[in-house]
Amino acid sequence: MPVESLTEDQTQSKLAGAKVLHVDADTKSRASLKETLQRIGFREIHGCEAIEELTERFEKVLPELVFVDIDIERSQVCQTIKDIRSAKLKMDDPFVVIVALTWKPEMEAVQAALQAGCDDMIVKPVTSKILRQRVVSQIEDRKNFIATADYVGPDRRPEDREKTEEDLDAIAVPNTLRHCVTGDKTAELTQLRVRQTLRNLSIQKFFHLSRQVSHIAEKCKELAEKDPNHPMMEESLKAIASALLEIDEINKEQHFESVKEVVASTHRVLAEVLEAKADLDPRQLDLINVHGHSIGSVLKESEESAGVLITELDRATNMLTKKTGDQETTADCGAAASTVNGGASEVDGSGSSPGADDEITQIPMKVRLKAWWEGCDPTELMAEKP
Q1: How many whole angstroms separate alpha carbon 274 and alpha carbon 277?
Q2: Which one, 17, 106, 129, 325, has the greatest CB density within 10 A?
Q3: How many CB atoms lie within 10 A of CB 95?
Q4: Is 170 strand, coil or helix?
């Protein structure tokens, strides 16, 4: 039977086993919420004064529901919530239901709490009716999670939105509040479920960061075509570097081997673009653009699609050399488009290499990228292996 269809007495019985942790510097406010929580059925309610205590108290209590006051030290509170959602605090349950509380429901406070990854926000003073409604909502109809370049938390995208290529599906996360109250095994928290969910969310974040790299590279090219020394160039290239470093950090935890070499190659292209400075050919940024798209695509579609990167790099390099009239390798890029796909002299507009052999696509990504950088046939590198 759904919780929302239960009587008040039945709801109280169901909520009695769930543990609550309330973070609020105001003693009276904590006492008031505790009384209201008890009124609707909660029995085990723990409080602490400062957000700095949250991690330690959380591991001792292991709550199913957390309330956090955001009126004091809002930026620190919101950053802590972000760190919980991104599993940076190494808590057992990064997906615990978190509800923000405030006396000041102005738009800035609401946006800050929701963008941090809170499930909901309630304005004080909290009434029993509102509290019960909101708690039941998190049990019965909690939103699935999504991850973007700078967000992990409930999916608040409009359901009637027009979907795009980057519109990834939301992910169901463990919900210990639901599991405790209803016994629903699909909502249960296990170490395996946490690892799998964090990995799936990391894939989404990885995908968005890779698209961010491509987007910034495209904007950089527009700037560079006007002026290689444009004042925005340095900041834009730093933003690409920052996104790549964040990708590296994710990979340290999740070990996405299929894209490791693509990311390393992107770092190399960026380093050469930075080194070129005033001598930068704007079209070199096409190579970063292609790398960015490929990071997400290879991650999403697996190693079998990694050959797409090499084909696209060939195309970008060929376009660059053709437009510059240089039939050798692209300046400062170290890539030979005529050999990397096993002897194909050019790439047609369809995105496939007419001279490419199926054997090439079986060669590991690491070897193919090395061949692209060194301007040689990847089969030759394979033959050199002992």
Answers
A1: 6
A2: 17
A3: 28
A4: coil
pTM: 0.79
Which ranges of the chain have pLDDT less than 50? 323-358, 360
Backbone angles phi, psi at 121, to 5 degrees: -145, 135
Structure tokens at 356: 């490419």
Find out whether 65 and 120 touch, Cβ atoms under 8 Å: no
CA distance 310 to 371: 10
Q: Which amino acid is at 1?
A: M
pLDDT single digits (tens) 63-112: 999 999 999 889 999 999 999 999 998 889 999 999 999 998 888 889 99
Dist CA 146 CA 86 (whole Å): 11
Residues 6+ apart with CB under 8 A from 217: 240, 285, 286, 288, 289, 292
**Which SS3 state, helix, strand or coil, does residue 11 take?**
helix
Using DSSP bridges, classify how beta strands 44-48 and 65-69 pair: parallel, antiparallel or unpaired: unpaired
Q: Dihedral sign for Cα 186, 189, 192, 196, please.
A: positive
Find out whether 69 and 28 touch, Cβ atoms under 8 Å.
Answer: no
Domains detected in the chain: 13-189 (3.40.50.2300), 197-305 (1.20.120), 307-386 (no CATH)
Contacts of residue 253, Cβ cutoff 8 Å, sequence gap at least 6? 198, 202
Of 298, 227, 285, the C-alpha closest to 259 is 298
Tokens representing 37? 């929580």
User: Does residue 308 contact residue 356 with C-beta atoms inside 8 Å?
Assistant: no
* Residue linked to tokens 């205590």: 53
